[in-house]
Design brief:
- The chain has one domain.
- About 50% of the residues lie in helices and about 5% in strands.
- It has 6 helices and 2 strands; from the N terminus they run E-E-H-H-H-H-H-H.
- A two-stranded antiparallel ribbon has the order 1-2.
- Helix 2 crosses helix 4.
Length: about 140
């Protein structure tokens, strides 16, 4: 942090670096030593949409965001939900736009993964229908 004579913060010195190749190297090393060396990156932003975009970029990790398969969409939505992305208002619409699907499709993916989680918690019980929707739970 940069401070003036009265010790008030007036700026910050930031270093931006493309870490794509470092992430690839970490994955290779991780595979070699069979130990998780990756850590969650910290994203600093003034706008929550930037944080959501950064989370999406992390989860896409080289995959094309256009027309991902259903399994890829579910995997991406599952990871974003685990990060708490869908606790942010309007996040589903932003994710849907990046993935090239409708909001309804994104909500359906969210509902599917949440129902799977509930079904798994019930030791393989029947899938729940009705009740609150993914739309209600994500707001």
């Amino acid at each position: 942090m940069l401070r003036d004579g009265d010790r008030r913060v007036f700026g910050a010195l930031c270093i931006n670096l493309d870490v794509t190749e470092l992430h690839q190297a970490a994955r290779i090393l991780n595979a070699l030593i069979r130990h998780d060396v990756e850590r969650e990156p910290t994203t600093f932003a003034d706008d929550i949409r930037d944080v959501i975009d950064a989370s999406l970029r992390d989860e896409l990790d080289g995959r094309s965001p256009t027309t991902p398969s259903r399994n890829d969409r579910l995997e991406i939505v599952r990871a974003l939900d685990a990060r708490g992305v869908f606790n942010v208002k309007r996040a589903v619409g932003q994710v849907a736009a990046v993935l090239g699907v409708s909001r309804a499709t994104a909500y359906a993916c969210l509902q599917t993964i949440r129902e799977e989680a509930v079904g798994g918690a019930r030791a393989g019980g029947p899938r729940r229908r009705g009740g609150s929707s993914a739309t209600d739970r994500s707001r």
